[in-house]
Prior knowledge:
The protein is α+β, with helices and mostly antiparallel strands. 26% of the residues lie in helices and 49% in strands. It has 2 helices and 5 strands, in the order E-E-H-E-H-E-E. It has a 5-stranded mixed beta sheet.
Amino acid sequence: xxxxxxxxxxxxxxxxxxxxxxAYYNRGYATEAFKGAIDYLFGHGFTTxxxxxxxxxxxxxxxxxxxxxxxxxxxxxxxxRGEDHRCVYYGKRK
Length: 94
């Protein structure tokens, strides 16, 4: 139904990414899976979990908020499918 992966690992900080098939949107799967991943990562030595999403994707932003992440003062422009998108980042510390 979807996937999660590590994007970057630095010491005890990890940036995660996730994607789900549209047929499974709005069912809570992303939130449940990501909460579980954060708990697992904290239990295995990581102290900070980061994630980013395109600013025009409110569902993904909401997933991060429901997982207790807070908006960081970090953003960047990322090219995707021929267009540039503003990516905003959220984080959670143990």
